[in-house]
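**Backbone shape codes:**
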Amino acid sequence: MARAALLVVGIVIGVAHSNPADARKLSGWDLCFSESFPPDRRVATCSAHIRTITHAKASVLLSKAGVYGQKGDYRHAVQDATRSIKLEPSAEAYYTRALAYHNMGRDEAAIRDCNAALAIAPDNENALFVRASAHQGKMDYSEAIQDFTNVLRLDPDRADVFFARGAAYYGAADFERAAGDFSRAIKLGLVDEVVFYLRSLANSELGDGVNLDPDLQQQLERHRARSIHRSSP
């Protein structure tokens, strides 16, 4: 099963289109950190401040790294997060760079950075989640399950973590626990056809018949058709 189908990355930065009138009320410094400002403008604003102040602020570099990560420019995200770490090591800077490394497929580097983040902040949920995802990327499911479980210990109502841990259980061929986690994710509001589909696969492995309503059955058939289309040469 494709890695993208199994993982839900819980660290997502949402950026809406800015209101020009609101933007005029903010200083250039504020715009560097404003999530309501377009990503390209944020990058340019942060860069301008880095050039014009004597000592580049770690927080500005970290904000810029986050924007690059959101844009899918992981190389620049790593570069700016690294500069931020050199100025002021922080858990946030390390897990930001770790997430970029993970998205580049460099899971060993991601795990090292998450370890550094957790040395600073042992109960940091984001660092635990990214490290779990990196372990899962390496198919080290026992370590991934442990980290996802620790995230749930800190926040028991995270549907995305139940889904991710269910995917790790599925990868480890523990289909009963996988089905249980997928069900928990659904109860917490993660009502997506992929969750139902993976739960149906887990239940099929257990030999449990699952009666699906017609609408859900149609959703699963559409998902299967898309999966076949994507895998076709």
